[in-house]
Amino acid sequence: MRRLGIQPLGDDGGYVQKVTIERSELNAPPVLSVGDGRFTHGKGIYVSQLTAAKVSGPVQRYKEGTPVTTGAVLLVPGNVSAPVAATSGAVLVITSETEQARTRRTAGTPRPLTLQRIVGTPARASITVDADTYPAFDKLADGTVVTLTADPQPPQNAHTWNVLGQLPGRSLPDAHDVILLSAHLDHLGNGRGPAPAGGDNIFNGADDDASGSVAVLELAEALARGRRPKRTVMFAWFGSEENGGFGARHFIDVPPVPLSKIVANLEFEMIGRPDAKVQPHTLWLTGYERSNLGPELAKRGARIVQDPPPEQSFFTRSDNIQLARRGVIAQTVSSFGLHKEYHTPADEIRFVDFAHMTDSIRSMLEPIRWLANSSFRPGWMPGKKP
What is the pTM for the complete model shown? Predict the structure, then answer.
């Protein structure tokens, strides 16, 4: 970015924004209490996010379009993503585990659960429940109090990092508008325990999301080399998307510009392999029907179509959802075809389809350039604002 003349937006005049996370190892697996029933992490329930030693609240069943009560325990079916809880006001989300989620959970040897939070943020937790155990939760009446408790060790500070830069708009007042292009630069690190025969426990994340990170950098280079757009274009690579979304949360808490100035956010997530459910060299846009952004970009050559598996709730499963909940038109560009290497050490560069990736990125360049030079302000469709 420095070579391209893109201005830094990170700490101390640099490109890197440091995010401090308070992290605690656990003395024992967390326990979920419902009346006289007790469920232990690793035995039918699996805690995927934990930010406090205790979270408790009344059960509320998830219904599309129904506001979530602040402090509720949100009970959702397996076709709705757990990250809904991160932006809904729920303190705990309990999700029935899908077959794909079970496959991911049992692949490799993931790191032990820890309590992690940005200091000052609300208590939250997320749990998936396996198919044998979920019926007990499905019978819970709304208002039933559920409590998750953990026994953490004294906290220590850990860190993640965002990388931020911008190409200032060339003319006022358009330069006050911001187009945000983003991806996440992290993956799942190293698994623990013995490596599988002939392999390793390194979660490379070539598709998830090195591919999206490359897309943002390529678009940054193309936009910087041409005539500067009228509007400001900001580039962000978020840290810790896979583990709490801490990078994007920090960006929202201390944004480089007021969030109201961000006209649109396009997050690039897993574009390294084509999705067999759509045409070759085509991307899809999560929440396509939620706003008028996708159709306008498609009119101008973007090879994007509607998200083919809406039951996967991909709109809620990337960093875009955190901005969308704050009112920003924020959607994710992807071509994730539910490949079996997802969230496993096998997500390696040998599976990347570079012809698909190159054509897909190229198809987005001119539509993004149009957006950055236009006065078009996308909006949510009636009843579709998250």
Answer: 0.85
